[in-house]
Design goal:
The complex is a heterodimer of chains A (about 600) and B (about 220). By secondary structure, chain A is mostly helical. Chain A is built from 16 helices and 2 strands. Chain A has a two-stranded antiparallel ribbon. In chain A, helix 3 packs antiparallel against helix 7, helix 3 (about 90-125) crosses helix 14 (about 410-440) and helix 7 packs antiparallel against helix 8 (about 270-285). The longest helix of chain A has about 35 residues, at about 90-125. The radius of gyration of chain A is 24 Å and the shape is globular. Chain A starts with about 25 loop residues before the first helix and ends in a 72-residue tail after the last helix. Chain B has helices at about 15-45, 60-90, 205-220, and strands at about 100-105, 110-115, 125-130, 130-135, 140-145, 150-155, 160-165, 170-175, 180-185, 200-205. In chain B, strands 3-2-1-5-8 form a 5-stranded mixed β-sheet, with helices on one face. The longest helix of chain B has about 30 residues, at about 15-45. Chain B is elongated. The chains are: A mainly alpha (about 600), B alpha+beta (about 220). At the A-B interface, helix 3, helix 11, helix 12 and helix 13 of A face helix 1, helix 2, strand 7 and strand 9 of B.
Chain lengths: ~600, ~220
């Protein structure tokens, strides 16, 4: 099947390892194999996802039952919990660290660390990343950053108390926040994480530009690779801005500089501009890879080419470009000149356009398809339906006058969770199930996967949809006890309902965890191409060996030729299948230095 | 339990709630279109053996239509929104006859400075009250927002008014309350561990009531 017309030169050191047996340490711990690094990222970020979830449960306990002692609260130290009651300072730490862990150590590494690493070489036909050792360092830096962040729970005064956004002067003044070491650890951890991200991103960009298989032209790349490519560009440009800001914040805390302290000549809004100049592209770092992988899975599940491939690519680029000029929409109420607000409103509203194009194209892909409802497809459809709600609820806040009552309320909490849970996390459930056989050579249980999808879908909506209502009613974000406000008291039953739903949502995630771990050992052995897919990765055995291909396959067509007439009886036509009418591609020139 | 925005309490509520409703209708239509479409496709095109999917790479016409419609809608929404945004937030929109108050935020309280009997801020008969905001109904009011320490946010849901108070800046926020009675002022920006209890009582008075209250305060009384 794999026709080889020429010898692909050895890309780099990674290829040598093909035949040499390696020790456990070289193979699984200090690995330079992009697939192992992806799996390392997977386990570490799933752990942090669990940590973030546990923090969320405590937040929901406090919001649902503010007067009652938390079950298990006695296990926590006196500085966090008193008589079983969550203390206000601990509550603020909970919301700050839930956001920090979920954004920086769960969703971002799950999407980028795991799938950029795992998929890019496999999908473009490369032996490994362009810089395998830098890739290894990127993982170790991320893990170190995660450990530093976790350590802040165990230092005097605990972790940050200024939200994951660390607005200044609160975050810059230990005397006002009550946090000392925790704030420094946050800054240091973010700087290290930024290093990891930049190393990773440069690697992804270089690999995609230089190491595509012969015939893998730009417009034959799967949308997952396109999305990861654009995401890497966002990462390499955005993270350094945050690193710079975090270093300034660190200096304010440690060296007594006053970048952000107006009392001594600094600027409070400067932090917000820097943070959101990073932060908004970051939001797209957290959704674009999800969109890309969902595109691959929906085409597969529909047994149809993706509808409007080129528009999909340009929509990714459009979202990424607009993502740079909308940061001010986080600052509509900040005291920034209202005329700037008008500008940011227009750019923000325009992002709805490429987002709508993507949703309609996914629907166009399903239209007149022959749908297969495997677990990845179900989660991918869940993604489309939930991302739509998250996208549409964004319009309320983009329209500046309507943002006035909604800004900094639970409405925005609902919005961000529709995008990051309903969007990114459903896409991740899809992706984890879909590429599980490629990672571990086993299939996850289909039945458990379906049960998990439906329960998650139901409890997820029961948890997050009512937050819109609570937010419309005016409940501010990050308040410890809504019941002290007369106008919020009548909403308390709904807060309780949200909390019960959130507990159920958390509980059913153990189905996924069980399925994931159980299938490692007891899962059905995966066939070579379990989803009848077209991607290059399925030309390899499961799991694929270090170095991937002996000789990389030629690519003859785009990635979505499902149900093509020339496929004959089958309803798919892999990129690497040579038909009698196909001509071999001209091999790409060997990059200099090899 | 309300399932809507709080009862309207200022002149801003009209346009903001109207715009909210308009967006609810637009996004409602889009949402129904997408979700009903998805469910229909899931049922109608579910896989059956022997059937083949319709092989197509898309349609330029469809792309143009579903790019153009959202684009036009969004630009229109932006233009309409901007009209009201300028009316509410632009410095030049503060009515010249606005009654001026000073609101100074600090961890974790609101200090409201009133102009006193001479109705001028910055004179010797000014007086400051903690955590009580008294205003006159149907009278444009401008608050000069400042902060002592960190960023806070002035939020009265019934008035549809929110504005951050930023240390080092003086920000004018104006409004015209339309309903008398008692309301609440909360802080909408995380300002430390006491963020949740940074609450003030808000009283909207008739002019006579307000005058009486000011006289009482000037005489050294409480409330």
């Amino acid at each position: 099947m794999t026709s080889v017309a020429h010898a692909q030169p050895h890309a780099h050191g990674g290829g040598d390892a093909h035949h040499a047996p390696m020790s456990f340490w070289r193979k699984y711990i200090f690995s330079t194999d992009h697939k192992i690094i992806g799996i390392q990222f997977l386990f570490v970020s799933l752990f942090f996802l669990l940590v973030g979830g546990i923090l969320a449960m405590q937040i929901r306990w406090q919001l649902g039952f503010p007067a009652k002692p938390m079950p298990g609260g006695g296990l926590l130290p006196e500085t966090m919990v008193s008589d079983g009651h969550i203390l206000p300072e601990y509550y603020v730490q909970l919301v700050s660290m839930h956001g920090t862990f979920m954004v920086f150590f769960a969703i971002m590494p799950l999407l980028v660390g795991v799938y950029a690493n795992f998929l890019i070489p496999l999908k473009i036909g490369a032996h490994d990343m362009a810089f395998p050792r830098i890739n290894m360092w990127s993982f170790w830096a991320a893990l170190l950053a995660g450990l530093i962040m976790t350590a802040s729970f165990f230092v005097p005064n605990g972790p940050i108390r200024s939200g994951w956004t660390n607005y200044v002067p609160l975050a810059a003044r230990p005397d006002l926040s009550g946090v000392t070491v925790g704030q420094m650890l946050w800054c240091i951890s973010i700087v290290v994480l930024g290093l990891s991200s930049v190393m990773g991103s440069l690697n992804y960009i270089t690999t995609i530009i230089n190491h595509r298989a012969p015939g893998m032209t730009w417009f034959r790349m799967p949308l997952s690779v396109w999305a990861l490519f654009i995401t890497a560009i966002l990462g390499v440009l955005a993270l350094p801005v945050l690193q710079g800001a975090a270093i300034m914040l660190l200096f304010d805390n440690v060296l007594g500089t006053h970048f952000f302290d107006p009392a001594a000549g600094g600027q409070a809004l400067l932090w917000q501009h820097l943070f959101w100049f990073f932060g908004h592209p970051e939001v797209y770092i957290l959704i674009l890879p999800a969109m890309g992988m969902v595109s691959d899975i929906i085409a597969n599940g529909s047994r149809k080419p993706i509808f409007g491939y080129h528009s999909m690519v340009f929509a990714i680029i459009g979202i990424a470009f607009l993502g740079w000029i909308v940061w001010g929409h986080h600052m509509f109420m900040s005291g920034m000149n209202p005329t700037l607000g008008s500008t940011f409103m227009v750019s923000t509203l325009l992002i709805a356009v490429p987002s709508a194009v993507k949703v309609f194209n996914w629907m166009g892909t399903m239209w007149r398809g022959n749908l297969r409802f495997h677990v990845p497809m179900m989660n991918a459809i869940g993604f489309v339906s939930m991302f739509t709600i998250g996208g549409l609820s964004g319009i309320y806040m983009a329209a500046t006058p309507v943002d006035i009552p909604l800004h900094d309320t639970q409405f925005i909490v609902a919005h961000i969770h529709y995008v990051l849970f309903g969007g990114s996390l459903f896409a991740l459930f899809a992706a984890m199930t879909y590429w599980y056989p490629k990672m571990f050579g086993k299939m996850m249980s289909e039945r458990l996967g379906k049960v998990h999808f439906w329960l998650t879908f139901v409890f997820y909506n029961m948890t997050f949809f009512p937050m819109h209502i609570i937010g419309m009613g005016g409940q501010m974000r990050r308040i410890y006890d809504p019941t002290i406000y007369n106008f919020l008291k009548p909403q308390q039953p709904l807060n309780e309902f949200i909390s019960y739903s959130a507990f159920a949502l958390f509980a059913v995630q153990f189905l996924f965890a069980f399925n994931f771990l159980w299938s490692l050992k007891f899962g059905k052995k995966a066939p070579q191409n379990p989803w009848d897919d077209n991607g290059l990765e399925w030309s390899l055995p499961n799991p694929a060996p270090h170095g991937n291909w002996e000789k990389v396959p030629n690519v003859y067509r785009g990635p979505y030729e499902f149900s093509a007439p020339e496929a004959g009886d089958k309803d798919y036509l892999p990129q690497y299948t040579k038909l009698p009418t196909d001509r071999d591609p001209v091999p790409a020139p060997v990059p200099a230095g090899h | 339990m309300r399932w809507w925005l709080p009862d309207a309490g200022s002149t801003f509520a009209g346009p903001i709630d109207g715009l909210f409703t308009a967006i609810l209708i637009i996004t409602g239509i889009a949402l129904v279109l997408v979700e009903v479409g998805l469910v229909t496709f899931v049922i109608r095109y579910r896989g059956r053996p022997g059937r083949k999917a319709f092989y197509t790479h898309g349609s330029t016409r469809a792309e143009v239509i579903w790019t153009a419609i959202p684009a036009v809608t969004m630009v229109a929404l932006g233009l309409i929104s901007n009209h009201y945004w300028v009316l509410i937030k632009d410095k030049k929109s503060v009515p010249p006859n606005a009654y001026r108050l000073g609101v100074h935020a600090k961890q974790f309280e609101w200090q409201v400075t009133y102009p006193g009997p001479d109705e001028k801020l910055g004179t010797s008969d000014d007086f400051t009250v903690r955590n009580q905001l008294h205003v006159i109904v149907n009278q444009p009011t401008a608050v000069e927002l400042t902060s002592e320490d960190v960023i806070h946010s002035f939020f009265v849901p019934e008035w549809r008014l929110k504005q951050d108070a930023v240390p080092g800046m003086q920000i004018t926020a104006w409004f015209e309350a339309t309903k008398t009675g008692e309301f609440e002022l909360g802080c909408a920006e995380l300002c430390g561990m006491g963020h949740y209890r940074m609450r003030a009582r808000v009283f909207v008075h008739t002019p006579d009531e307000y005058k009486a209250w000011v006289a009482q305060q000037a005489a050294g009384g409480t409330e």
